[in-house]
């Protein structure tokens, strides 16, 4: 009898676990995430949206996100940075290359940089959602903080808890932070921009950059040096 009772209890637990993961998988799929076989949670794989014929041609004057920008709107060249807060190479760009671009081009009115969140996992999605709640004049300062502390929160057992601590240091209270993390409108916008980046711009990883001059755009994928950006910006300005 004891053995039969043990089997019965074990079966009930297993059934409950299966139901839990099935329900969790459905919830994640609605939110734009998938669960890998190893149990890790990531956003929809880019391969699911890739065109087999390769990267698409970017239509002239295609409407791109403009919300998070530094530099003059009248600058002849705009750099759209598709970036994940959890991407090491994105952090290198933000902490090393972007300050040089700002000094050489942005501050002189020659270029504008627009940051477009492109989360690659749940933690970077949480970071992007919290950043969305920052006042416009604090967005890039908070972004810099997230990139500087990337390894700390990225390797934490509870990344969301650490991210909320950074948000608090930046003036975002606990209640507001929780509301930001559950803001479906912001989540949909971030995921929509991400999906557009994949399907219409040909973005396959982070960082990726779209360089625009006079309505015409081209994709510059992967890690790029300051010299590469400088040469390309000068070339665009001269056109």
CATH architecture of the largest domain: 3-Layer(aba) Sandwich
What proportion of the residues is helical, as a percent range? 40-55%
Tally of extended strands? 7
CATH C-level class of the largest domain is Alpha Beta
Shape: globular
Strand order of the largest sheet: 3-5-4-6-7
Secondary-structure class? alpha+beta
Beta fraction: 5-15%
Keywords:
239 residues, alpha+beta, 2 domains, five-stranded mixed sheet, two-stranded antiparallel ribbon
Report on this model:
- By secondary structure, the chain is an alpha+beta fold.
- The protein has two domains: 2-31; 46-238, 3-Layer(aba) Sandwich (Glutaredoxin).
- It has nine helices and seven strands; from the N terminus they run αββββαβααααααββα.
- The protein has helices spanning 2-31, 88-106, 122-132, 139-148, 150-154, 159-169, 174-181, 184-199, 226-238, and strands at residues 33-35, 41-43, 69-70, 77-83, 111-117, 208-213, 216-221.
- The strands form two sheets. A five-stranded mixed sheet has the order 3-5-4-6-7, with helices on both faces.
- β1 and β2 (41-43) form a beta hairpin.
- α2 (88-106) crosses α9 and α3 packs parallel to α6 (159-169).
- The model is unreliable at 5-32, 34-42 and 44-53 (pLDDT under 50).
